[in-house]
Every structure is written in C-alpha cells, then in structure tokens.
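Duplicate of #3305? Posting structure anyway:
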C-alpha cells in the first residue's frame, strides 16, 4: 500500500495494512491518465466524469474486474463503481475475492486545501474524507448500489455505522441523500447487529457540525425519511433531536422553515412559474414584503392559515404540509407529559 496509491493486487494482509507518510517514497506502478485526475481538485461533474473513465479501465471486455489496479487515495474499484453508478463494475468487484475482502475499506482523509470538490458557489468540500464505498453510494444518491452494498456488508459481517473524517456516519449520509428504502434497510440491519449501541449512539449521532439525523433529513425532497427517523428516535429511545442546535444555532424545525422560505423565494422570482398566480396577491411588486408575510403565516400557523394552504393544495410542496400539520398535531390538547412530539413553539 502506498501513501497516494490504492490497491495494487497485493496480498490481503498488505492491502489492509496501515499507511504512513514514509510510504510515499516507495515505488508504485504509475497511475493511468484517468486515475491520476483524482490527484487534482475539480468540480463535482468533472470528478464524476473521471470516475466513469476509470470504471471503463477497470473492466475487461467480458465485464470482469481487471487482474490488477492502482488507484490513488486508497480508492478501490468499489469506490469507483459507486461514484460512477456503474452496476456492471459493482457486480464485478463484488465477485472478485480480493476486492470483496476490502469491501469496507476507507479512502484517505485529505485536507480540502490539498484536494477538494469545488461546488457551484466556489466552496470546497472534501473529496477524500475517510469514506467507505457505501458512503460514496449514499452521497451519490445511488440507492440501488447502496442497497446492494448494505446486503453484502451485512453478509460479510462488516456492516458498521462507519464515521468519516467530518463525523458523518453512514446513517448521517443516508438521512440526507438516501431514499426511504435505503434508510429503513440500513437502520434495520444496524439494529440487528448492534442493538446495544444502535439506540443511543447511532440514532442520536451528530456530525462534527452537530447536525443530527433530523437536521440532515430536512434536505430531502419530502419529509418521509425525516418522519421515519423521528419515529425511530421516539419509539426506541423515548427522546428525539428535534430541539438540538447545530453549530449555527439551528434546530431541524429552523431548517425546514428555511427550506420553505427558499422555495417561496424561488417561486416569486421565477417568471412564468405556474404557481406565481397563487403568490400574486402577496407579491405587490415587493418580494421582500411577500416573503415577510409568508414567514409570518408560517409562524402564526393558526387554523385559518392551515385551511388557507390546504385549500391551495400546499403550493410549496410536501414540507409545507408536514410543517403545518405536525405543529398542529403537537399542540392538540396534549400536555407536555403526554405529547408525542412538537416543534419548538418559539420557532414555528
């Protein structure tokens, strides 16, 4: 194993051995042109294009894994398959005994100043962050690949709630990017394998930025994963992370509200948006005032406001329906002792 290189068809004990800075001086086979592109920072689209190019190099003409490979940053063909969303490569890598033995191998953890994915707003996010192939499948919202890896890891006795260098566990990434099938399957498997720590540690885990599973689930397109995780927290632990503050001082309810305000802002600014007619009464040539009025409606959330949005068919989507109905349900003739859960009153 080399400090910058990945698997080179070495014996298993060497494959899984530790990396040291001194290893960088040792000789390794040269990276292919495609693989060497992972040594440089790039935009996400370019990064994924590079993975697809490497994926082609890792397969023989009859769709088997090549006999040897050399990838940077402790990447394996499984990582590449998940980045490229390549089901053929994933199948070939899982069928390869050597690759299957390192099914849970983590990439190197490299500072963003050295290697990063550049976002559309020119921000940097870690490109190699101590991630397993399953992390990559989840980050890439490749639900098919994620489910396959969950089952294979479980069969191999290697399914753990692995945490990467920024504190993102597998469940953390699944909460933000995976669909309900993936999240529920991962939860069920982890609960079977780690019943003693699943409840207090895995379900209540927070990243280095203090984002709980519920914080992360607010970034989903709909609240299904959020509801599932919340029910799990309450039914199993009797507690939830609804009131937990992240490093920005925000609860999950704050983030849902931000999602709704962002969605409304986009709708107000989009010419030709069919929903614009619904907002026209509020617009009054003053988008800032329209947003202020909308925020006031969300905060008020009385029966009249709820009926108003219900009659409109919840034009801002399923999170709007969830936000309004769940707050109402939490306040229904329930004392704090008997209430199942509620958003913070001062926030919504």
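Output from current build:
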């Amino acid at each position: 194993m080399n400090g910058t290189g990945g698997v080179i068809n070495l014996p298993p004990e060497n494959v899984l051995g530790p990396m040291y800075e001194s290893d960088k001086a040792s000789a390794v086979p040269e990276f292919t042109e495609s693989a060497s592109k992972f040594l440089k920072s790039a935009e996400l689209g370019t990064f994924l294009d590079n993975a697809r190019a490497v994926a082609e190099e890792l397969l023989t003409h009859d769709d088997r894994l090549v006999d040897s490979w050399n990838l940077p940053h402790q990447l394996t063909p499984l990582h590449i398959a998940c980045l490229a969303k390549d089901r053929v490569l994933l199948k070939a890598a899982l069928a390869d005994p050597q690759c299957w033995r390192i099914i849970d191998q983590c990439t190197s953890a490299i500072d963003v100043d050295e290697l990063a994915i550049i976002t559309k707003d020119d921000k940097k996010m870690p490109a190699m962050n101590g991630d397993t192939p399953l992390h990559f499948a989840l980050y890439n919202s490749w639900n098919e690949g994620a489910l396959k890896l969950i089952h294979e890891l479980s069969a191999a006795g290697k399914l753990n709630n692995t945490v990467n260098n920024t504190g993102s566990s597998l469940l953390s990434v699944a909460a933000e990017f995976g669909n309900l099938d993936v999240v529920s399957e991962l939860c069920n498997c982890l609960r079977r394998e780690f019943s003693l720590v699943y409840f207090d540690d895995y379900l209540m885990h927070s990243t280095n930025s203090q984002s709980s599973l519920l914080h992360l689930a607010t970034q989903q397109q709909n609240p299904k994963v959020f509801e599932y995780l919340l029910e799990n927290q309450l039914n199993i632990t009797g507690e939830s992370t609804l009131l937990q503050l992240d490093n920005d001082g925000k609860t999950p309810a704050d983030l849902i509200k931000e999602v709704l305000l962002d969605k409304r802002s986009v709708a107000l600014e989009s010419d030709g948006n069919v929903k614009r007619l619904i907002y026209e009464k509020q617009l009054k040539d003053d988008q800032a005032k329209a947003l202020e009025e909308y925020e006031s409606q969300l905060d008020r959330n009385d029966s009249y406001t709820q009926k108003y949005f219900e009659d409109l068919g919840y034009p801002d989507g399923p999170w709007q329906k969830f936000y309004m109905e769940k707050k109402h349900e939490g306040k229904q003739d329930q004392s704090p002792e008997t209430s199942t859960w509620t958003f913070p009153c001062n926030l919504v």
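Confirmed duplicate; merging threads. Residues 261-331 form one domain. Strands lie at 42-43, 116-118, 124-126.
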